[in-house]
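Q: How would the structure tokens look for this protein?
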Amino acid sequence: GNVYAYWHTDGGSTDPTGTVTSGVTLNPSSSLTSSSMSGTTCSDTGSTGSGSISCSSVSCPSNSNGNSIASGCTCGNGFHGTVAASTTNPYYTGSCTQNTCTCSNGNPATGTSCSSNGGAICASCNAGYRLSGTSCSAVACPSNSAGSNVPGGCTCGTGFHGTIAASATSPYFTGSCTQNTCSCSNGNAAMGTSCTSNGAALCASCSAGYDLTGTSCVATPTTTTIAGSAGCLSSCSAWQFDVNQISKYFQVNPLTIPSSGFTMESWVYRTGGQYMFSYATSTHDNCMLLKSDYLPANAWSHVVVSCSGANSCTAYLNGAAKSTLFYSTWCGESGGSFVLSQDQDSVGGSFDSGQATGMQSNGFALYTSVWSASDVSTVYAAKCFNPPARGNVYAYWHTDGGSTDGMGTVTSGVTLKPSSSLTSSSMSGTTCSSL
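A: Here is the predicted structure in token form.
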């Protein structure tokens, strides 16, 4: 309305310059073309009018790439969103927002490195983790250590010492596990996993003249000289242990067993009960246990156990092999507790009165030699308890029948219970030479 005058192209087929009102000159009239505006009119979106004769394209906004809004804009690296053309200022809608990434066990990527909004993309890792692609992986525990992984904690394996701590720089842990070194006086030190504590005094084997007791090498005990003839010991008395009780027993604790083989000997007069010899260690309460059930009642019996190694023993009763005497043969361990007339369910104790053997014994001997069947037969035929006459004596104890000692004279380290009432009775009228 109220138009004074206007001119425009009409795109008519007869007018390369358009049909116009009179009085208008277009020069040159024959060559001035009415070209298209690249498909854009003044009313097209993404452009701004300049007067009534031209439209300019709007540039892509910040953090986006492209020639113009009209031709399309995409968000740059590290940004996300959409940009669309609009007919109203600023002639586009939307924007490009910086991406945010996540990272388990580390620090997330930022800027252009965070290529996908919400993506799990790590830039660096916490101590104990290494970057694997775009994620953080826990580093495994190093050699000679055990544990789920470095962040979870690693401990040095048996036979090794040291500490392992998580680190943020390669190899993502500090420290190491070094093999333990042990020492041993009078023998060879434990090595490898047997050396359980660095710098500890732990022996694996001993030099000549020493025996392994626990983890130490102890000088082999010397034999105590006891009065006696070349035939039988002069004593004709015996220790007496009652049945169904736990207060009377003979005990050597600890008793080191010769590792190269040994023989045990005793004369026993059984009146009842179940178990007569018990040897217990910290790991095996029945490291060796002998039953008395097969001994004749109310008669003297010669009992011998001869062992060449662990689980390689022969029991003898009155000169003949008797395997049924064993409840359990020697387990191969040393440094345990030896008890006559009681069964130990722990080292040196946990007796059961119902398992005690009623018996008399005139002594107990331990030899460093392994007696053969012929040796046992010869000793039994002598009907005599006389360890010094046998040779290879490791240790022995016997009653002496002294008026001041109802339990007999014994070497140090031996317990006889009870000290005030255990009687040294006569051997049922039997002399030492006529057992």
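The chain has a mean pLDDT of 79.

The first helix runs from residue 373 to 382.

Upvote if useful.
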